[in-house]
Amino acid sequence: MTQTNASSELKFKFDAVFYYVNDLEKSIAFYQEKLGFPLVSRDYVARFNVNGVLFELVPHSSGTVVAASGNARLSLGTDDIHQAVRQLRARGVTTSEVKEETGGLLAFFHDPDGNELCLWQNT
User: Fold this and answer.
1) Which residues pair with 100 in a beta bridge?
2) Which of 2, 14, 114, 115 is most buried, judged by most C-beta within 10 A?
3) What digits encode the pLDDT tens for the residues 92-122?
4) What is the CATH number of the domain that holds 93?
5) Are 16 and 57 in contact (CB under 8 A)?
6) Closest Cα to residue 105, out of 74, 88, 73, 83?
7) Rounded Cα–Cα distance for residues 106 and 86 (Å)
8) Are 74 and 115 contacting, i.e. CB atoms less than 8 angstroms apart?
9) Domain containing 31: what range?
10) Is residue 9 part of a domain?
11) For residues 40 and 20, what is the distance between their CA atoms, to the nearest angstrom?
12) Alpha carbons 68 and 57: distance in angstroms, whole number
């Protein structure tokens, strides 16, 4: 039996992370105004540059309400999670309390469509 090197067969490169949203305008405002993400382009989707990572908002096309589901989340690193939580709350974002996890500190919040985001600080 001959073994092949999987990395030589698959030539992937990172493209983007995206969330489905119900109201594109409301979601764009949240990510720009509350999180400070720079909008880099917009056509049928909105694209943001988050420290070199392409993050997209994609309108849900089925006409049904998108419900938060699955286990994916956008995780945002920070050097001072307590300050970041204070700033988000001052901007009207509801966050969880900061909790200690193995290797760091963690806090959660949601976008207007219920997509989960988290803050992470390495300890």
Assistant:
1) 105
2) 115
3) 999 999 999 999 999 999 999 989 999 999 9
4) 3.10.180.10
5) no
6) 83
7) 14
8) yes
9) 15-63+73-122
10) no
11) 18
12) 14
Euclidean distance between CA atoms 56 and 58, whole angstroms: 6
Q: Distance between CA 67 and CA 58 in Å, rounded?
A: 14
Task: Label the pairing between strands 74-77 and 39-42.
Answer: unpaired
Question: How high is the pLDDT of residue 3?
Answer: 55
Question: How far is Cα 40 from Cα 37, in angstroms, rounded to an integer?
Answer: 9
Residue 12 above 80 pLDDT? no
Q: Considering the domain boundaries, does residue 7 fall inside one?
A: no
Residue 69, token pair as written in the block: 């589901």
How many angstroms separate the CA atoms of 99 and 85, rounded?
12
Q: Which residue has the tokens 């006409």?
A: 63
Q: Which two tokens stand for residue 66?
A: 């998108």
pLDDT tens digit sequence for 35-70: 999 999 999 999 999 999 999 999 987 655 555 555
